[in-house]
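I hope you will forgive my troubling you with a question about protein structure. The record follows directly beneath this note:
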Amino acid sequence: MNEGIASEVSLFADKVMLMRRIQSEEDQAGLHRDLDRLQTWSNNWILEFNPTKCKVIKIGEDLIYSFLPQAVLALRVGTDGSSLQEAEEVLQQIFEYSVNTSHRHFYNQLYGGIDEVTLAASWLIEALNTNVHTYEAAPVFTLVESFVIGRLVELFGWLDGEGIFCPGGSISNMYGMVLARHHTHPDIKLKGSSSTRPLVVLTSDQSHYSFKKGAVWLGLGTDNVVSVETDTYGRMLPQALRKAVKEARERGGEPFFVGATAGTTVLGAFDPLEEIADVCQEEGLWLHADACWGGSAILSNTHKHLLQGIHRADSISWNPHKMLGVSLQCSPFIVKQKGLLQEANALSAPYLFHQDKFYDVSFDTGNKSIQCGRKGDSVKLYLTLSLHGLRHIEERVDTAFSAARYLQEQVSTRPWFRPVLDKHQCTNTCFWYIPPSLRHKPETQDWWQQLGKVAPLVKERLAKAGTVMLTYQPLHEKQLVNFFRMINTGVPAPTHQDMDYVLQQIETHGADL
């Protein structure tokens, strides 16, 4: 982010705050004074965030996660308030010791840097400090959310639908489960589920853990979440799904929900949505598409084929805060059947959702939500898409895929790297690094066990050096020991040189293993 943009973003936040109603000239003077100091600090924060000389994270021998707050941060709450100097010191420490997720070499999770437009939108949302539960409290945010949801309905190939912005993809997936249950057994809302057969959720053995967590929260029980077998690439097998449905019924259960995944967390797999939709249609099951990670492919003409069949889903979750650089959190959920969100969740509390208001109460979105307090996250996505334009957003997605493709080629051809799969699917690239001590040796069970220790050791060294932050994991379902998982996102735009640097850093920090 250049200095001009940083200055404009900070000035934007200044103007937003000054739009608020200040009661006195003294209050205004104090606000101006504090904003001047905050603007200087935030400008420095933005300008210093991305340069390659900065570390991804600051960890040394005297600074370990387990005692970070007590050892480093000057945290205190007392009878008297802190001075502005003390507050600035804490702010600086928070910045200095936090993970720099906008660093070029932060690849640790399914998100990355923050776009400057969405940063401005986030400040706007915080400054206005309104709750998107009723139209009277948040008229503009309500209309923006309605517009954005309408565009997403079209984008994913539906003729009609509705939706809501949620606090993360896990909650979005739970919305799908709640609506599927209400669609199947609407009486559960009033009478509970004691009179029904055990309701069964089916999802792939590579799906996100939120489906099991949703089963806990909804009282279904994790024993009633069936893990459906996947192929080598981690894609759900439609024939295995059909078999699992049959077996669940034979055990006395009632399958009602299939959670397909468009971009799994580890391997980046896209389930075959068309074939899964066929099974769901034949068996009378609700199909939810968890597109939290891979859903951004819908914005790319080159890669949207990965989502073929998503228009047949009954509900979809997507996280623009992952690949697109929209600030956390931004998680729209859409459903094809209009009115179902209201039917499943509305309780119409008379002190908030009055039915005799002076406007159309259908705009009171809080009645569709499991939350009362809800932020205006739709504004961040709207401004990102509208100010940059869909062509630029498509370039972001394509650049991330290009970097993943290049990295896949490199780990397939360099002598001491080995890919987990012979091709990448989303922008996940999974691979092993074979250190000197394991080279030219028989690949016995013990050899693989030793190889599984390499990724954790190298990750620790990279973190302490502050050069690269990436993750690793085993895949027990596939009998795979720990391997590196590299995630490319659209912000900052990854390059082939970045990929080379990551591999060079792994080799450097693993050279003595």
Observations:
- The chain has 18 helices and eleven strands.
- The first strand starts at residue 162 and ends at 166.
- The domain at 182-318 is CATH 3.40.640.10 (Aspartate Aminotransferase; domain 2).
